[in-house]
Design goal:
6 helices; 198 residues; Rossmann fold; single chain; globular
Amino acid sequence: YAAADLFLQVEPHMPMERLPNRRPIGPLARIGRARRGEVAAAAHIPEQEKIVLVSLGGIPGGAELTLPSVPGVHWLAGAGVSGPAGAVTCAGSLGIPFVDLLASSDAVITKVGYSTFVEAACNGTALISAPRDDWPESPYLIAWAERNARFALTDGGLDAREIGRALEEVLSAPPRPPVPATGVEEACCVIAKIADLL
């Protein structure tokens, strides 16, 4: 980083104050198309039920996650996730892009990481996360999510009780406006100036 003429520091980020060449820019995120009616029809979800997406890619260990039975909640999940009969749909079977599923959901359960954290906040979707104590970016991403999203951390890990508690917390919180995903436009402007295109 220090050897570069310019380092675009994408929000949210670690401070990295030792680098004099850093230039902060806004978040990078895909914005999905809310297709709630289509998702509900494909997964046979009653209109009044909440839709919660579970996205835990990259968590090692192989232990299966068991989702709790929460009245009025339907889960969209992938492999290695089980839950109450009739209340869990395989997200991949719907044929709908992930970012559209995210934009169509009331909440997402994930691990601490840039992509889903930022895309949830930028799509206005509530966010629940498992801790990731061994990852240096964790405190900065968590602090950003607390400021910008309906967010809850499952301090005890992703057991059924913690998931239920966190879900109740975020679904009862007031809505938060989506965070503008301005990073691409800002990066293009900076790069264009460097390349004398503007």
